[in-house]
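Reviewer 2 asked us to include a model.

Predict the structure of this chain.
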Amino acid sequence: MLQVHNLKVAYGGIQALKGIDLDIAPGELVALIGSNGAGKTTTLRALAGLLHPSAGKIHYQGRSLQHRAAHQLIQEGLVLVPEGRGVFARLTVEENLQMGAYCRNDKSSIAQDLQGIYKLFPRLAERHVQLAGTLSGGEQQMMALGRALMSRPKLLMLDKPSMGLAPKMVVKIFETIRSISAQGVSILLVEQNAKLALEVAQRGYVLESGLITISVSAANLLGSDAVHRTYLGG
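Predicted model (structure tokens):
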């Protein structure tokens, strides 16, 4: 579904990505872990069309993403839930969710999908007329996931979905990620809680200083002493 080869991204004179390769198969859940500043968010933003690579190739569903705008990628099912959630604070919960379907025109299906989001996240249904800026962090993360699902993603990229959330809410968010994956949506997951990420993923990549240093099954990463010492607190 997604193939990335020799991807490089620079900020001024700083080389944030130094030539990474990665791929994601249809229906696969892949974790990308690494320390702060390793280039994880940069990777997602480049794949989502929000940053322009200085070199490399990105192919999605067999087509090059070179010179493709971010909104075009959303229309084709490549969707990013950004770090910090990016909610529209002065819009209601329902208006935020509807923004996820802005590139669709199938009104009856949009209405059905909205009810599906409320079934997935009953708390959002209870607060559908509440301003998004007044929600808790966990509720905002639910809404950000729901908004992304309203665009009917084929490949969903998640940037640190557990950041700043209470432990019970983290469990709920990861249950939801498992559920989305079980429906056949491909997922690229960037997560500071590397253990949680690897427990839900089939494969994992380790990104260090702009380079992929390890690419193996998630189970192998969980069993690696070096990964435990560096990323899992063991």
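The longest helix spans residues 167-182. The chain has a mean pLDDT of 92. We have added this to the supplementary material.
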